[in-house]
């Protein structure tokens, strides 16, 4: 920094869609990604959905020369899918798992099993401390289809995650000079979750701030022209949607500017397939030391921020009421199943004791009914416990948001 | 601070053992605790195992006058059991859940269901930022009985938790002036987990540092004379054990000293029962602003710290091998159950198709066997998934520890 007053940092971010056995032409694509990363020589590479540790090891071997430092975040049954490659030493890491993450019974979405989380990697470059946050995509839902956006049961979960993410960043980034976040946020730029995250942390959107832009129209990262995209999901958005972001801010006496933002477009050079079903986002950041400390400014003017927090809190409240309803239904179902079981037990005992005249029910249907009741009892109890946890987390977030609002209002 | 150069802070910490329906004379004791807290007027009160939100609400109402600020941390199915009462405004909160927490099938220990976690409460007193960390007790095991300490299957889990706790504190406390941690750490003062936590964060033990001490011999917080203690568990330790701690450190240009440490002894004043099955710990800290910054000094000399991390890493490695073995056994069991099911299905199909001469097995035992195989299959699959997660987390921690060791060795 002494000789050159400006540090240039090239950041790469991609949701790799590398799910073993499920993602199309996975191995080929991971190889293409590796080749491109080696060729381009970024400073920081944030990859998501690298679900197979084998793929990470292969990339690590291939990229060892130009990115000597790397980290793979492990969590959940399947893993977090997050990894980071860096040209500069990684000093420290931490992983934070969101407390709410979709529903275990929504098997088709699979969110609950993935240990969705946010990582933290501390990197020191030319004496500047960078806190780099790679994220796994938050609770999904077929976000892209309009019908779902109107009745989006996952919205409260995504808001809890956006809030926890913002809180985690605020609490861990206080000693950093620069914060960089990259990932698939699974939200449109104007969605309340993004506004909450940006407002509450003061992070800026590289796409909105970039001096130059090159890539898909409007910075979209999920585009219909990508051959792996399910086009029916993008019908309401003929241009595509922008859900992969690079966000940044300077914490202490530094300023950060995004000089250039790029997205990949179309197929990988010389190939017939793109790198992933998402487009990659590449930002060139210029970091400059400035005379006085910038302070921990919040991104949005505070009255606006209060509006955003209020909006988010209302949505979390809606989710809370829904979760309470589901907890009640599951509890009632469990009680009914238990009553049925007890009734059957009484009848069976009665029959055994010879109180009833003969066998009142055919044996087979009697035991089938008992098994059914037992199954329902177990399932309903599990659901009841799950929704109890959901209620607690939504309540906790709502309370934290209320506290934040009070603090915002009390500020002079 | 301007007029008075020293700030005195009185901190109270107690594991309340307030489990609904299970803890003896719970309501009475919670009331006693509330009365005592109101009478004594501490600055900060950290309570654990307040599992019923009702108990928290009652305390909040009772203590509203002298402790106008409070927070209850919600997590897991049952909750975190953590709450904080403060005479000074709480600016912000955060909760971090440990990634590993005992075994779901160890129902009698119940760890897995409690959402064991560490909270963070930011409090500002006279312009000094305090990061206060209340903890729920980490993965237990009948820690107190010697036979268990020798074959302690939970040790790797406790070490993962101690490591995550230390990492969480390091990453979130960088902008704080003073760090205070209070809780039941479920470890003896010389256990590797405590040495790891203290060494890696630089936290000091209020008992060891206190100028004056008053209370149970050796600062013990689980003592045989407490009528709620299960004495057979304390047999190898006739004096009791010290597992509840108040730890602290100054981060920036402050010094902290522990003037006085006390524990409760015997029954609550005028009553025939103590406050809990644990003794409370009460520390009086003196905080003084000093000329120059103290720096983020690590607590232990670095070669010693490297030894502690190496020791912890070895133990985590032992846990990793055990977890891999259990994952393998569970997987093999699942495959065997699946094979048995397939065999039965083939036999049943054969019988249906008339290939077999008559019915080879009695119907009832045949279906019972099928149900048994199905049950074993489900159970073994669940166990396999759980141990897969365990392996990932232990691996991740071992790798982080390796990285920390490298950093320690590379330091000039």
UniProtKB/TrEMBL annotation, chains A, B:
Per the database record, which ranges form the Endonuclease/exonuclease/phosphatase domain?
Answer: 15-278
Annotated GO MF terms = metal ion binding; sphingomyelin phosphodiesterase activity
Could you confirm whether the keyword Protein biosynthesis appears in this record?
A: no
Required co-factor(s) are:
Mg(2+)
The cellular component terms of Gene Ontology attached to this UniProt record, alphabetical and capped at eight, are: membrane
Keywords carried by this UniProt record: Hydrolase, Lipid metabolism, Magnesium, Membrane, Metal-binding, Sphingolipid metabolism, Transmembrane, Transmembrane helix
Q: Name one Pfam family in it.
A: Exo_endo_phos
Record-annotated membrane-spanning stretches: 334-358, 364-386
Statement: the UniProt record of this protein carries the keyword Lipid metabolism: yes
Q: Which SUPFAM superfamilies match?
A: DNase I-like (SSF56219)
- List the catalytic activities from the record: 1-O-hexadecyl-sn-glycero-3-phosphocholine + H2O = 1-O-hexadecyl-sn-glycerol + phosphocholine + H(+); 1-hexadecanoyl-sn-glycero-3-phosphocholine + H2O = 1-hexadecanoyl-sn-glycerol + phosphocholine + H(+); an N-(acyl)-sphingosylphosphocholine + H2O = an N-acyl-sphingoid base + phosphocholine + H(+); a sphingosylphosphocholine + H2O = a sphingoid base + phosphocholine + H(+)
Query: What membrane topology is given?
Result: Multi-pass membrane protein
Tell me the compartments it is located in. Answer: Membrane
Q: Which GO terms describe its biological process?
A: sphingolipid metabolic process
Q: In which pathway does it act?
A: Lipid metabolism; sphingolipid metabolism; Sphingolipid metabolism
**Superkingdom, taxonomy of origin:** Eukaryota
Q: What is its EC number?
A: 3.1.4.12
Family listed: Belongs to the neutral sphingomyelinase family.
Q: What is this protein called?
A: Sphingomyelin phosphodiesterase 2
């Amino acid at each position: 920094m002494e000789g050159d007053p400006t540090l240039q940092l090239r950041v790469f971010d991609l949701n790799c869609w590398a799910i073993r056995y499920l993602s199309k032409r996975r191995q080929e694509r991971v190889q293409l990604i590796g080749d491109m990363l080696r060729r381009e020589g970024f400073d920081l590479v944030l990859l998501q959905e690298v679900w197979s540790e084998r793929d990470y090891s292969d990339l690590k071997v291939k990229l060892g020369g130009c990115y000597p430092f790397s980290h793979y975040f492990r969590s959940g049954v399947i893993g977090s899918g997050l990894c980071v490659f860096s040209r500069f030493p990684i000093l420290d890491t931490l992983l934070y798992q969101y407390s709410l993450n979709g529903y275990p019974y929504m098997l088709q979405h699979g969110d609950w099993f993935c240990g969705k989380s946010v990582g933290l990697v501390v990197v020191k470059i030319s004496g500047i401390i960078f806190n780099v946050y790679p994220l796994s995509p938050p609770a999904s839902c077929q976000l892209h289809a309009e019908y779902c956006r109107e009745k989006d049961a996952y919205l409260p979960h995504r808001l809890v995650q956006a809030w926890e993410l913002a809180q985690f960043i605020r609490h861990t980034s206080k000693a950093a000079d620069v914060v960089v976040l990259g990932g698939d946020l699974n939200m449109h730029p104007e969605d309340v979750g993004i506004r909450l995250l940006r407002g509450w942390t003061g992070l800026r959107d590289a796409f909105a701030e970039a001096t130059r832009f090159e890539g898909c129209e409007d910075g979209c990262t999920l585009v219909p022209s990508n051959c792996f995209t399910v086009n029916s999901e993008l019908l309401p958005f003929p241009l595509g949607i922008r859900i992969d972001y690079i966000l940044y801010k300077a914490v202490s006496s530094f300023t950060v500017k995004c000089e250039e933002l790029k997205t990949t477009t179309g197929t990988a050079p010389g190939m017939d397939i793109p790198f992933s079903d998402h487009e990659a986002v590449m930002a060139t950041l210029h970091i400059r030391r400035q005379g006085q400390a910038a302070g921990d400014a919040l991104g949005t003017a505070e009255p606006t921020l209060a509006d955003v927090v209020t909006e988010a809190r209302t949505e979390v409240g809606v989710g809370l009421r829904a979760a309470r309803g589901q907890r009640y239904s599951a509890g009632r179902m469990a009680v009914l199943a238990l009553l049925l079981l007890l009734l059957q037990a009484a009848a069976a005992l009665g029959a055994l004791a010879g109180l009833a005249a003969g066998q009142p029910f055919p044996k087979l249907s009697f035991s089938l009914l008992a098994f059914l009741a037992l199954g329902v009892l177990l399932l309903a109890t599990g659901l009841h416990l799950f929704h109890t946890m959901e209620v607690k987390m939504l309540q906790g977030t709502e309370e934290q948001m209320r506290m934040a609002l009070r603090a915002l209002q009390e500020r002079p």
